[in-house]
Amino acid sequence: MEQEKRTFSQWFLSRKVQRVLVITTFMFVPLLLLVVFTYFPFGKMVQFSFYDKKYIGEMRWVGLKNYIDVFQREEIFQALFVSVYYMGGAIVQMALALFFATMMVFKVKGEAFFKAGIFFPYLIGGIAVGFIFKFFYARGMVFDTILQMFGMDIENIPLWLQDKSINNISLVATSVWRYMGQNMVLFLGAMMSVDPDLYEAASLDGANKWHQFRYIIMPSIKSIIVLNLILSISGSLSAFEPPYVITNGTMGTGTYFVIMNRLAHENQKVGLACAMAIVLLAIIILCTVAQKLFFKYVFDDGTADESKAAVRRRKQEEKRKKAEAKRGGAAV
Fold first, then answer.
1. 267: which DSSP letter?
2. Cα dihedral value 181, 186, 188, 192, nearest 10
3. Which domain holds residue 231?
4. Is the pTM of the predicted complex or chain greater than 0.85?
5. Does residue 40 lie within any of the structural domains?
């Protein structure tokens, strides 16, 4: 019996076609927004990086000159060096977040209060945090007053924002204060997924809190640790609010983003700023790939009980024992 041909309306109203239409319709708006507000501006930025361009006026083709200037300008290299301070702060921030999260897992009095207090700074906007610490570090203001209460002479207290030996450390401390709570909550969520019976069994076997942290918590959340460390170190390359609001990038505190903002908006070197953005993107990609490869080699991204290095050492040890056993059998 020949299959009856369907009309266009029957085909259009079929379940399969309707499902495709619904999926396409719901995807259209997000994809359109993504193209218009992300991919198209990125393409224009790449284009502008090859031009000598201001916000108003004609563009002049300069080829790779802007990229050459990025690697020749001393202020840009200084900005990359300042990012090292923020990378160090990211590691300190991760260590503190891991410490406080571990304390919360082992239950302390006032846990909810401390958890809310540590997480609260993350809810404050970056500009607001900048203004808070701008007055906190100002000469004779909050921090200096607290130190004087403990007996320090005002003449012996350093200028937290003017002294080039410590001003970047002061600014990094603001980022540590703000983002530590976010990482603590992420670590705490990962730790809460660990079976509590493991802690009880470890306690019965005589394991203290340090042993439980080292042999139960760390192996269980190492993938979260690796992910947070990659995001924190990559984010330190694009630090902006603290140096911009507190010092406006002066006295050696200008980060890469602050210098890029100054060149684009104050000096009207839009093409050079676009080239800086492309170079920063390349640096972040290289750092992320390098970190992923390193942690995959060392920690195996938490997907196995042993890291690849540990597996290789174990296999080498097994080969060595087999070789010794063969030599022993041959001697007999």
1. S
2. 160
3. 74-129+170-310
4. no
5. no
